[in-house]
Design a protein that fits this description.
Blueprint: H1 4-13, H2 16-21, E1 27-29, E2 32-35, E3 47-50, E4 55-58, E5 64-65, H3 67-75, H4 79-90, H5 102-128, H6 133-141, H7 146-151, E6 155-157, H8 163-168, H9 174-179, E7 183-185, E8 191-193, E9 198-204, E10 210-216, E11 225-227, H10 243-253, E12 256-259, H11 262-270, E13 276-278, H12 286-293, E14 298-301, H13 307-322, E15 326-329, H14 338-355, E16 358-359, H15 360-371, H16 377-391, H17 397-411, H18 415-426, E17 436-440, E18 443-447, H19 459-470, H20 472-481, H21 490-504, H22 511-516, H23 522-534, H24 541-573, H25 577-600
Parallel strand pairs: 12-13, 12-14, 14-15
Antiparallel strand pairs: 1-2, 2-3, 3-4, 4-5, 6-9, 7-8, 9-10, 10-11, 15-16, 17-18
Length: 601
């Protein structure tokens, strides 16, 4: 792995315009340069190179990135080959010895050792200590056998404040213990255990080494689940619960079942469905999809039968589609989750639901038909437009063609019109779609949106990211007013996290330098170049930033409100007035936050 510092040095010594002009004839267009795109046939130049931002972007086919990305694409090289070629041109030596710092290596070793000790401590406590009697009864009532408990090395963290810390105190430096995430520092000095009075679910990496934990309460306390923080050995977006136990079955069956929670997975596994992994309530990531892709290309998504579950399913669909995987969706009966369903119907019943799973096309079509009237022209247009956008992300052309025929028949539309619309969706003349407005306090600002088939990024997200890359002051303001969860699109969120982190460290970030951190994620690299290019057409940038910040904050509140109302409806149906009152309090806080945003605006 080439150190980031070396990559930045190469980039600093090279001018992207000079490099690209060795392959293409560039013509100046204002402060940028244009050419016919080398990656798709075109007569009108839509390929732009920005010397200021050190990026390229084609508004026709959507390709974009920094100097490394261009050389990779034009010469069909992998990243290291492209970097070595550019390093030679820049006169930068890539060190042959890229071993990890011995201090970092030792700290990593201790993290693994600590998590192994913690897993054993919690597991043995559950199996043998009288203080864990209630925990054993809880798991028994949830239908888990002793063999299952042992297989997943489930444990119990006692209620005392420092049981685990006391068991390892003196063996490991307190600083290492704290950074491992297993203990928390007290304000007055000393440490206490992160996990207390909770069922413990060890999370392992692909080799079976424990790297983190999830802890669940046995009553109605909140938070229901408490998870390990991210550390040097654990990133929640790069791991999947149960993959180590499921990997053999996934390969044998050539399919994986993706569920949401720890108990969902364990119940499926105990019921004989062993090719199952869990996302643990977090949005699926590209890294997780690629992790699964090493084992199979066939995915079944089984999330809870509610609005939140439906949203999670749709987010997962987009990621798996972009990775070229075959996806099917299982819709459980209303009010059921995989855990409860397996308990009632058994593993065989669950397998039957997998056999009846809908493919992506049928699932999305059914959802759209509940929202739009397919018997009207307007409804047909809305359904077709949504599905055509989806089809453009499907990599398998035969599958895309079959779905296009099916959609044409379903809506009584010509197949030719759908194909024509799909082409327009993937490649607009000049790379531009119809201008669309961003609502501001002083009226709409017209923005020309670039069509990005692989990404569903809101205009507000694009503008905030693009303006933050263009102006350090804008980046500071965005990092102060927003949090990463304000960005709903996964790629946009990754970009925001990196920009905000750099900004809070007192440094600025350009588009070209930012792309270095995402060399193995083409979709993110392309988005970086696109958002950087988007700001070229914005006149009153400060006003647009202000209004887009407000839009993102409001959108997050609306999303939270929708999920809260769904939970409140479920609690009312169950007759749980305590939970209803709790949700009403949260709803009041959301309304209060939205009012404050409006008043500040």
């Amino acid at each position: 792995m080439i150190p980031d510092a070396i990559l930045h040095q190469i980039q600093d010594r090279l001018d992207i315009v000079e490099v690209i002009s060795g392959y293409l004839t560039l013509r100046r267009a204002g402060k940028n340069f244009k050419a016919n795109c080398p990656f798709h046939g075109e007569k009108t130049p839509s390929f732009m190179v920005s010397p200021d931002k050190q990026i390229f972007q084609c508004f026709g086919c959507g390709e974009g990135g920094n100097v490394f990305g261009f050389v990779m694409k034009i010469e069909k090289k992998d990243f290291r080959e492209a970097a070595e070629s550019l390093a030679e041109r820049a006169g930068v030596e890539i060190p042959k010895d890229t071993r990890i710092d011995p201090k970092v290596e030792e700290r990593t070793r201790q993290f693994y050792l600590l998590h192994t000790k913690a897993a054993e401590f919690y597991h043995q406590f559950l199996l043998s200590r009288k203080e864990a009697h209630a925990a054993r009864a809880y798991l028994e009532n949830r239908g888990l056998s002793r063999d299952t408990i042992i297989q997943f090395k489930l444990g119990f963290a006692p209620e005392t404040w420092d049981a685990f810390y006391s068991s390892v105190k003196g063996e490991t430096a307190d600083a290492i213990l704290e950074k491992s995430g297993l203990v928390v520092a007290k304000k007055e000095g000393g440490f206490y255990d992160r996990f207390r009075n909770r069922i413990i679910f060890p999370i392992t990496d692909s080799k079976g080494a424990c790297i983190a934990f999830g802890g669940r309460v046995m009553d109605d306390s909140v938070p229901k689940y408490l998870n390990s923080p991210e550390t040097e050995i654990y990133s929640k977006g790069r791991n999947l619960y149960g993959l180590f136990q499921a990997r053999k079955a996934i390969r044998e069956i050539d399919a994986v079942v993706v569920v949401e929670g720890y108990m969902d997975l364990i119940s499926c596994f105990q019921g004989g469905v062993e090719n199952v992994v869990a996302s643990c309530g977090t949005a699926l990531t590209t890294e997780q999809a690629r992790l699964l892709k090493r084992h199979t290309k066939n995915v079944y998504i089984v999330y809870d039968a509610d609005k939140a579950g439906e949203s999670a399913t749709l987010r997962g669909l987009e990621i798996f589609i972009e990775e070229g995987m075959e996806v099917k969706i299982v819709r459980l009966p209303e009010g059921e989750d995989p855990d409860s369903f397996v308990k009632k119907q058994g593993g065989e019943g669950f397998r039957r639901t997998l056999e009846a799973a809908k493919n992506l096309f049928d699932y999305k079509l059914d959802l759209l038909k509940t929202k739009h009237d397919a018997s009207t022209i307007e409804g047909k247009v809305k359904i077709a437009n949504d599905l055509v956008s989806l089809f453009s992300r499907v990599q398998n052309e035969i599958l895309r063609s079959a779905w296009t025929k099916a959609l044409a028949k379903e809506l009584s539309l010509s197949e030719e019109s759908l194909v024509a619309e799909m082409k327009k969706s993937a490649q607009r003349p000049g790379g531009k779609t119809q201008a669309r407005p961003v609502e501001t306090a002083s009226g709409p600002v017209r923005l020309t949106a670039r069509r990005v088939p692989q990404q569903a990024v809101s205009t507000a997200e694009r503008m905030v990211l693009g303006l933050s890359l263009e102006n350090a002051g804008f980046a500071r303001r965005a990092s102060e007013e927003l949090v990463e969860e304000d960005f709903e699109n996964p790629s946009a969120r990754k970009i925001a996290v990196k920009i905000f982190q750099t900004t809070r460290e007192g440094e600025s970030m350009t588009a070209g330098r930012l792309a270095v951190f995402f060399q193995e994620e083409p979709a993110v690299m392309t988005l970086i170049s696109q958002v950087a290019a988007d700001t070229e057409i914005v006149a009153d940038k400060e006003r647009v930033l202000s209004d887009c910040l407000v839009q993102l904050k409001r959108q997050r509140i609306r999303t939270e409100r929708t999920e809260l109302l769904s939970r409140m409806a479920a609690a009312e149906q169950a007759g749980d007035q305590g939970r209803v009152s709790e949700f009403m309090g949260h709803l009041h806080e959301l309304n209060k936050r939205e009012k404050q945003i409006h008043e500040k605006k």
